[in-house]
Design goal:
single chain, mainly alpha
């Protein structure tokens, strides 16, 4: 699932928990929310790393082009 899908799912669980009065009934939802949070964090880190690498590659490519022009 995408980062947006996971975030939407987490928001649905949060909304459900906010409306829940019975704490015993909400334990499983809290567990799901914690797992989702970990998954979202991992996906975010992965996406962030990929973006950073992509940007670095583009910068290096531009620098190489400029290097050729100055020679």
């Amino acid at each position: 699932k995408s980062l947006n899908d996971l975030t939407k799912l987490a928001n649905i669980i949060i909304e459900k928990l906010e409306n829940e009065n019975d704490l015993d009934a909400s334990i499983e939802d809290y567990k799901k929310l914690i797992k989702l949070n970990i998954l979202i964090e991992k996906k975010f880190k992965k996406t962030s790393k990929e973006l950073s690498q992509e940007t670095t590659n583009k910068i290096n490519k531009i620098l190489k082009k400029n290097e050729k022009k100055t020679k």
